[in-house]
Amino acid sequence: MAESLEVDLVATDGKVWSGSARQVSAPAADGEIGILAGHTPILSVLRAGEVRVRPADGGEPLVWHVEGGFLSVDSDHVTVVVDAIKAASAATTH
């Protein structure tokens, strides 16, 4: 089993962040969802809240405030598509 996830965070105007991560947390419509390597495939609607990515290299967590969208997980690849996004931490510039 893989130990990391490949993550793409995309807004309406283009890619916000892409890279390897150990964990992704997002505000799903029914509550907070946490994704680790090996997670079963899922498609979830997102509500307003924070998307958090823990990079695979152990760096500081990256945090963005989003205004809805959706999250898809398949074969350790996480795609987060958001309606609107704002950086909530200084470490989000990639």
UniProtKB/TrEMBL annotation:
Its main location: membrane. Keywords: ATP synthesis, Cell membrane, CF(1), Hydrogen ion transport, Ion transport, Membrane, Transport. The keyword Signal does not apply. It holds the Pfam family ATP-synt_DE_N. GO terms for molecular function: ATP binding; proton-transporting ATP synthase activity, rotational mechanism. CDD domains: F1-ATPase_delta. Produces ATP from ADP in the presence of a proton gradient across the membrane. F-type ATPases have 2 components, CF(1) - the catalytic core - and CF(0) - the membrane proton channel. CF(1) has five subunits: alpha(3), beta(3), gamma(1), delta(1), epsilon(1). CF(0) has three main subunits: a, b and c. Belongs to the ATPase epsilon chain family. PANTHER family: ATP SYNTHASE DELTA/EPSILON CHAIN, ATP SYNTHASE EPSILON CHAIN, CHLOROPLASTIC. This is ATP synthase epsilon chain. It comes from Cellulomonas composti.
